[in-house]
Amino acid sequence: MNAASRFRDAPGAAPRSLRLMLDGVPVLARPGESVAAALLAHSGGATRQTPVTGAGRAPYCMMGVCFDCLVTIDGHPNVQACMVSAREGMVIQRQIGARRLGDQP
Amino acid sequence: MSADLVIIGAGPAGMAAARVAAEGGLSVTLLDEQERAGGQIYRNVGAVAGRGWLGADYARGGALVQGLDHPGITHQPRATVWRIDARRGVIWSRDGQSHVSPAAHVLIATGAQERPVPFPGWTLPGLMPAGAAQILMKQSGMVPDEAILSGAGPLLYLVAAQMIAAGAPPVALVETPTAITHALPKLPRALFGLPTLIKGLGLIARIRAAGIPWYRGAADFRAETTEDGRIRFDFTTGKQSHSLTCDLLLTHLGVIPQSHLTRSMGLAHEYDAEQGAWRPTLDPWGQSSEPHVFVAGDGGGIGGAEAARAKGALAALAILHQAGKLDAAGRDRRAAPLRRALSRALSLRPFLDAAYSVPSAFLAPPDETIVCRCEEVTAGSIRKAACTGAEGLRLMRTSLRTGMGPCQGRMCETTVIGLIAEATDRPASTLGPGRIRTPVKPVTLAEIAALGPQPEETT
User: Fold this and answer.
1) What is the DSSP string of A18-31?
2) What integer pLDDT is reported at residue B386 of this predicted model?
3) What is the dihedral of CA B80, B82, B83, B88, to 10 degrees?
4) What would the pLDDT profile of B75-99 be if each residue is shown by its tens digit?
5) Which of A1, A2, A5, A7 to mutate against chain B (most B CBs within 10 Å)?
6) What is d(CA B403, CA B261) in angstroms, rounded to the nearest whole number?
7) Which domains does chain A have, with CATH numbers?
8) A98 interfaces chain B, CB cutoff of 8 Å
């Protein structure tokens, strides 16, 4: 799942000074960017597998429309990673299949 | 905290309206889903310095953001509106808690979303809309690496030029058929938008100068993941087949109004045949079929940022008049220059709509295409269902679950309509718009229950 990122840093981009955890692996993020952006900078692979066929998906629209970037953040399932700013110490999990009711914190 | 006016969306329309309304003496609550005001077009503009490669048009949004610094304006960031209730007001969510903002007047300025571009492989990691890549450029300082730009429309040229300026030129530009000759009769009016036209030609010149391979008249899109995780992009031009490899395949076929909120309120809507999309029915001030509800910006019909700014200000003047803060003569006097600006901003639109119309293969894609990304329903099964009785959006929804996933049809409705239109030989205009129910964005039952039967204002 950890293909190389499909993006590179723009000229003059700020350093990635925040540290998030994705399934136990550190992911660096830039202050002010969304969790989805940090995940795309980290890897070009899937960030979830769909409930219906198990197909891999990654953040797509980046503006809250498509819901393909759903991840679990700090125990909260089905969060749109593109709508949440990255913060130091966030714990993120890829979502494999559908969430269950008991997953709710 | 009750406000005279609640504005939903802090893009150019919402920001311009907030300033005009506040200066006119109204208290304004500005609700926006993002952390910072700006909308998609001016995303993050207030916080970015030293990104000259994004261009001067982008930087211009800064003044609108600064205009929000007014004692009459309360900007509520990270606020997701999920219902507008005629009696209670605007209901919105932040951090798992919902709030009600009662308002005498409501302005919906929720802007546009990208038109879905469905073809086999469009759901794979490594495919994104061109606008999504632009958001990453503006907000995260990230530039697409080894990317192909595909589809049609002015945004493709802009993104290509920005990528070139950032030192990461696209691998190729793959353009679907354009109808520039067909659009030429609209050109005389477009000349009123000459500066924009010249800017567009400048972008094209920069792409040519950078030597980017440019394929025209492309069709039969198909994407697959290669063994090393890259994207193989197959397409045809005429009788010739092409196969290119890239890391990121960006697609774009224009934008459509985000109408979930306006539709959920039961406002009157109409089909815009030139733009191939529904929009709320509005008077020249942006007033909807509900007298206290106004709509401004791309959410009321695609016009771009400059048009949105003018429409936002016009709606604010009408609301000031409705609220008794501005007489009709004053309203009309101040509206005159705005209407001239609006006319200039819209002069290019008929030409663009005609030149960059959507190829039918993207309205009714090949059978194997996943159309509903949430429920993973293919074009083939939708065609089959349409031929066996599911001749409308609701019937399709109940038989195949199209539009029942978390995106609530935002990514599939245009395609489901296109496929039903094709199968039943009816015009798309008779098949929509689909009925939308609240909540228009997912909220938990616990959050709704916490609002109580007769909620008091909570913030």
Assistant:
1) EEEEETTEEEEE-T
2) 97
3) -50
4) 999 999 999 987 889 999 999 999 9
5) A7
6) 15
7) 18-95 (3.10.20.440)
8) no
Are residues B141 and A12, on separate chains, in Cβ contact within 8 Å?
Answer: yes
CATH level 3 topology of B363-430: Arc Repressor Mutant, subunit A (1.10.10)
Q: How far is CA B54 from CA B44, B161, B307, B392, in A?
A: 12, 9, 20, 43
Here the ipTM equals 0.95
User: Among A91, A89, A48, A63, which residue's Cα sits nearest to residue B129?
Assistant: A63
Where is average pLDDT lowest: B9-23, B37-51, B143-157, B302-316?
A: B37-51
Q: How many helices (H) and strands (E) does chain A have?
A: 1, 9
* Tokens describing residue B167: 């030192």
Structure tokens, B13: 């329309």
Domain residue ranges of chain B, discontinuous segments joined by +: 3-114+256-326, 127-253, 363-430
A8–B143: do the CB atoms touch at under 8 Å? yes
pLDDT value of residue B1: 63
Model pLDDT for residues B391-422, shown as the tens digit of each residue: 999 999 999 999 999 999 999 999 999 999 99
Share of chain B above pLDDT 90, in %: 85
Give the closest of B114, B143, B166 to A61, CB-based: B114
Whether B3-114+256-326 and B363-430 share one fold: the answer is: no
Residue in chain A nearest B54 by alpha carbon: A10
Task: Give the pLDDT score at A104.
Answer: 53
Residue count (chain A): 105
Question: Which of A13, A57, A60 has its CB closest to that of B132?
Answer: A60
